[in-house]
Amino acid sequence: MKGPRSQPVLVSGSEHPSPEPRTPSPAHRSWRAVGLLLVGLVLPAHLASAKIAVFVDGRILKVEDAYLDEDRIVLRMVDGGTMVVPAVRIDRVVADEIASASEPLPSIDCPPGWSNEPLPKWVPFRGSIENAAKTADLHPWLLAALVQAESAFDPNAVSRAGAKGLTQLMPSAAADHRVRDVFDPTENLRGGASHLRLMLDRFDSLALALAAYNAGAAAVERYDGIPPYRETQDYVKRILRRFCPVDG
Q1: Can you list the domains of the chain with their CATH numbers?
Q2: Quick one: which of 79, 188, 207 has its CA closest to 124?
Q3: What are the backbone dihedrals phi and psi of residue 92, each rounded to the nearest 5 degrees, phi first?
Q4: 13's torsion region: left (phi>0), alpha (psi -120 to 50) or beta?
């Protein structure tokens, strides 16, 4: 029988989040609200970097920029052309920046399934996070860590490419999970939790499921593992270190 796992750690304040030391017991858990969006930042067009658009049908396209225009996503091609597609055809959009070196992931010894381990009372949307996690058979601390990384608990967060709400649902995922109002915290959390559960069932790996949530399932399948995109690798590490922190 395994011993007690390290306790989840989230960070807060207006500074950029960074991992904190592992805490020894539930009484010493440290959660702080984050003031910056860590994933899905809304950037002015002139600051947007090259991107990878991952289609729901498995295609992966390198583009200069991608942005939401009503119910469509406009893809500006590297050669200067433009492609306009229905928003529901795009799974995810991720920054096209390859990590210079792939650092090892933190050890994962934290079951992602449901655990009756309540969140601190002051965590935003605590009840809705716990309910959505239980319905999707996810650990509430895992879902809370994902929400922090995706939107910093901002239910009105919108990315340039159209990811919206607490779990930054793309239009395709919102449609798949029948989320009618992505800005409704309860609906958004249900959709995000269901989507993460779908990725967990598909890849049978927490790290790969998180990578697919960030970069799209097709990207994970294409690379037969976590894609080399810096954004995705940092995203996976950030959530694992908060949900399942390790020494070192």
Answers
A1: 26-41+100-243 (1.10.530.10), 45-95 (2.30.30.100)
A2: 188
A3: -150, 160
A4: left
The catalytic residue positions are 150
Cβ-based neighbour number of residue 102 at 10 Å:
12
Exposed / middle / buried, residue 201 (Cβ in 10 Å: 0-12, 13-18, 19+):
exposed
d(CA 188, CA 159): 15
Q: What CA–CA distance (Å, rounded) separates 17 from 25?
A: 22
Which pLDDT score, from 0 to 100, does residue 109 have? 76
Nearest to 117, CA basis, from 146, 142, 135: 142
| Pairing between β-strand 90-95 and β-strand 82-86 as defined by DSSP bridges | unpaired
H or E element, residue 55: strand 51-55
Token pair belonging to 222:
């294409």
Tell me the pTM: 0.80
Give the range with max mean pLDDT: 9-13, 120-124, 134-138.
134-138
Q: Which amino acid, one-letter code, is at 161? A: A
